[in-house]
Amino acid sequence: MSLKVFFLTFIILLVFSGAVNGRRFISDSGGLISDGVHSEIGRDLEILRLDRDFAGGEEESCEQSYGFLPCTKTALGNVFLILVYGYLMFLGATYLSSGSELLLEILGPGIIGGLFLPVLGALPDAMLILVSGISGSTAAAQSQVSVGMGLLAGSTVMLITIIWGTCCIVGKCDIQNSVAVDMKDTRGFSLTGSGVSTDIWTSHAATIMAASVTPFLVVQLPQLLHSTSGRHLSVLIGLIISLSLLVSYCVYQVFQPWIQSRRLAYVKHKHVISGVLKQLRMRALGRLCTDQGAPNIEVLEKLFKAIDENEDGYLSRTELKALVVGIRLEEINLHENDAIEKLMKDFDTSHDHRVEMSEFIAGVTKWLTEARGSEAPSPEAGPDTMKYLDDLHEQTRREHHFLGDQSDESVETVENPRSTAIKAVLLLLLGTVIAAVFADPLVDAVNNFSSATSIPSFFISFIALPLATNSSEAVSAIIFASRKKLRSASLTFSELYGAVTMNNLLCLSVFLALVYVRGLTWDFSSEVLVILIVCVVVGVFASVRSTFPLWTSLLAFLLYPFSLVLVYVLDYKFGWS
């Protein structure tokens, strides 16, 4: 913390030095007569100026942000400013992330986790995109808006190439039976025998990420059709679609915890069904079904009498307990009493808290039908039936594993919710203020550096700005992936896909609104193509599989330089832009 305080103190001194410089006209001082005193002061103040070439070159005018922040026209000076403002944007993003996590601890998922967290995570990027084209003339905005597109494309590409591949490496575990084993990493850097596994919800997040590129396609349609008349309209349509998808995505995030709990409950129910049927199958010596595949009523009656220890003609909760003892409920984080409750709920149709013989036979028949699904009953009894139930039991166990059940994790209570909430709000306000104040100076520094070096501002913003706005997310993702568990890997990759989705929806909505309101020209074919290729390739690949061997990280790394080269070739060799 002391290092941050020192650095911020240095920034404040730099700002004050810029304020001193801001009181002086940045122009040629020729024609003024020295009084012998102020000339010395003037020479001292020249030391504070960043707009003089370090080698002693000629002065060039520059426009100071807010009238007092330092500015420069030299390459090295702008590198320094990009580092300073980039670090401040990084601090802003860090404060926003910390404040969001504190709110999540207090209020839990739902609206906070589904709405505020994704929006706040994309706020620094959205701020930079907004200031890149909101001020100045239309011509100046058209020139500067490439910084916003560079940030949008660079953030998306960096998150699902470099960060994605790094998380795959640091989170790698041994792959056995196509699944990465938690906390087991003995195969080193085996390209096929080591990797990460994620849950089914992460695959859903990847699918949503791939679908989030739809607005890009809509905006790009007039150029694909070589039409110039419908470009402004396509921007408006793309903006509407982007906002609609953004609202839909936030609603999905809000209700996702409820969807997950319902899905987990259903899988646990199927696991109990298959486990109880296995127990009955073993007691019935393999004759649960007749040769025609129908339930064997005679055997079921004998099973009922064998379970009815007190021979009162009813099965109590205590007697039903014998059916769930050998199911290994710990594999699905289900308590024994909960399993018995599921039995009573399905079997006790009269709601008298006990199971009659007719209810038992009807319940087992219903479960056998559910276990077989829509398939016709097999006429083969004996080992085939047993194998079918074994397969179903294993299938439900694996399905539960890939659903990422977290019900066994202890939930830490917040000791002082009031002070924690105040701290969270202050962090969010501080992060928002920093992002809002220093976004414009950072964009100016990028443009000035581009002018000084003749390097297109798109490539500068593509490479440099995502490091400032996404560093906190990247570091958090890498640290979390290093825990080498399916749950941590699932959360890590889900956050990466979610961040890209918000870039493609929220940040694109800001960008399209800027283009439409300012009457700018949409001319970003190569940039859009890069976003489409990376999002679709990674999104489709991650949606059809849940285990990623180490060789997949190499493909992810290669997508980053491929994106840069593709934009350069299309823009400067084929003249797309």
UniProtKB/TrEMBL annotation:
Single GO biological process annotation from the record: intracellular calcium ion homeostasis
Residues of the EF-hand domain: 295-330, 335-370
InterPro entries, per database record: CaH_exchang (IPR004713), EF-hand-dom_pair (IPR011992), EF_Hand_1_Ca_BS (IPR018247), EF_hand_dom (IPR002048), NaCa_Exmemb (IPR004837), NCX_ion-bd_dom_sf (IPR044880)
Membrane topology (UniProt): Multi-pass membrane protein
Signal peptide location: 1-22
Keyword Lipid metabolism: no
Record's keyword terms, sorted: Antiport, Calcium, Calcium transport, Cell membrane, Ion transport, Membrane, Metal-binding, Repeat, Signal, Sodium, Sodium transport, Stress response, Transmembrane, Transmembrane helix, Transport
Localisation per UniProt entry: Cell membrane
Location, primary (coarse class): membrane
Cellular component, GO annotation: plasma membrane; vacuolar membrane
Keyword Transmembrane: yes
Sequence intervals crossing the membrane: 75-95, 102-123, 143-170, 233-255, 420-439, 459-481, 493-516, 528-544, 551-570
Record-stated family: Belongs to the Ca(2+):cation antiporter (CaCA) (TC 2.A.19) family.
Record-given protein name: EF-hand domain-containing protein
Native source organism of the sequence: Solanum pinnatisectum
